[in-house]
Amino acid sequence: MSLEHLKRVRKGSPSTALHHPPPPSTARTPPVSAATEISLIGLRVAEAEPLLVKALDDAVLADLPYLRVVHGKGTGALREFVHDVLSADPRVKRFGFAPPNQGGHGVTLVEFRA
Questions:
Q1: β-strand partners of 26
Q2: Which residues contact 62 (CB under 8 A, 6 or more apart)?
Q3: Which of 20, 37, 42, 69 has a CA between 20 and 30 Å from the CA of residue 60?
């Protein structure tokens, strides 16, 4: 390729522009962001269910190792519901209450399968 040809291409002459195929796309799907904690305090079971399911789905898609579910102590209905959902979810490796200094029986820690 001559220097004159390169100069014409640089000036943007459409008749002499080089036609190269676009480079292959290296863009990957953007990483999923997810919170490591969800708070269900003050919600009824029916209100908490879709939020819990979404938090579990997001955590698994983001490949998080664990999720903190803050349900509070209250009457125990929300805690029982959370534990029922986690028991039935095959993506959950194990779950249990947080240590006393991290919420105790008001917080459930969920660990996911690798």
A1: none
A2: 31, 32, 33, 34
A3: 42
CA distance 66 to 95: 9
Question: Among residues 70, 60, 68, which one has the least CA distance to residue 92?
Answer: 60
Q: Please determine, for residue 26, whether its predicted confidence score (pLDDT) is greater than 70.
A: no
For 60-90, the DSSP string reads: HHTT-SEEEEE--STTSHHHHHHHHHHHH-T
Return mean pLDDT, the chain. 86
Q: What is the pLDDT of residue 17?
A: 47
Task: Record the pTM.
Answer: 0.72
- Supply 90's token pair: 């095959």
User: 77: which 2 tokens?
Assistant: 């209905």
Sign of the torsion angle spanned by Cα atoms 96, 100, 103, 104:
positive
Q: Over range 2-12, report the average pLDDT.
A: 67
